[in-house]
Specification:
This is ATP synthase subunit a. This protein has 253 residues and is mainly alpha-helical. The chain has a domain at 77-252. It has helices at 2-12, 35-56, 67-87, 96-115, 135-157, 173-208, 214-252, and strands spanning 25-28, 31-34. It has a two-stranded antiparallel sheet. A hairpin with a 2-residue loop joins strand 1 (25-28) and strand 2. Helix 3 crosses helix 7 (214-252). The chain starts with a helix and ends with a helix.
């Protein structure tokens, strides 16, 4: 009886109203799309487009850049250095747009989950959250990364790229094939798990201790969100560089 009274009291005064896995669906023919992911993704894309236009609206060539242009140039230099370190001096330039898009989209998405009060915006079903808080988004980004390093390998080595699966010995063929499956899995679940856990922890603390405790956790969340974006972009560059490096090794021989 006391247990039932406790449960009824808990239902009357819930500590947190958190739902995981409930989505706002768009019905398009026979397909169901997660509408809340598209809404927040379009918000992030709009922010990036506005930032790009603001940073290139009045480019200062002769004088030192100021204001937002200086920030955008710093971001470009950071991404170029990241791509150069992972892919190599000779091959990195064509991959700067891809690595940069991954990093900026994930970075802004992660920070939107920490800074934008998505939960306060009501939708017919589910709730809004950062795009990277949905496993579909992170899996899509990971699969794009896999396609990118396959393209890099085949564009440099042709069908000879497949030789990597039997090097240094054909015995490793199953392990080398398995590795290509684990790369996108690890990329997607690492990003999704960290962002979901961070938002859940902050949400629970806001309900339990709404004034003091959540603030340092939110600051820590901003830091870890940036680190997650950096890790994803760095690993993407490393995988592309690894695919290209084999070609360099063949040329060397």
């Amino acid at each position: 009886m006391e247990i039932l009274d406790g449960l009824s009291l808990f239902n009357t005064f819930p500590l947190a109203e958190l739902e995981v896995g409930k989505h706002f669906y768009w019905e398009i023919g026979n397909f169901q799309l997660h509408g809340q992911v598209f809404l927040t993704s379009w918000f992030v894309i709009a922010l990036l487009i506005v930032a790009a236009l603001a940073g290139t609206r009045n480019i200062q060539v002769q004088t030192a850049p100021k204001g937002f242009q200086n920030l955008m140039e710093y971001a470009l230099e950071f991404i170029q250095d990241l791509a150069k370190n992972q892919i190599g001096e000779k091959e990195y330039r064509p991959w700067v747009p891809f690595i940069g898009t991954l990093f900026l989209f994930i970075f802004v998405s992660n920070w939107s989950g920490a800074l934008v009060p998505w939960k306060l915006l009501e939708i017919p079903g589910g709730e809004l959250a950062a795009p990277t808080n949905d496993i579909n988004t992170t899996v899509a980004l990971a699969l794009l990364t896999s396609l990118a390093y396959f393209y890099a390998g085949f564009s440099k080595r042709g069908l000879g790229y497949l030789k990597k699966y039997i090097e240094p010995t054909p015995i490793l063929l199953p392990i080398n094939i398995l590795e290509d499956f684990t790369k996108p899995l690890s990329l997607s679940f690492r990003l999704f798990g960290n962002i979901l856990a961070d938002e859940l922890v902050v949400a629970v603390l806001v309900f339990l201790v709404p004034l003091i405790v959540p603030l340092p956790v939110m600051v820590l969340g901003l830091f870890t969100s940036a680190i997650q974006a950096l890790i994803f972009a760095t690993l993407a560059g490393a995988y592309i560089g690894e695919a290209i490096e084999g070609h360099g090794g063949e040329e060397h021989h």
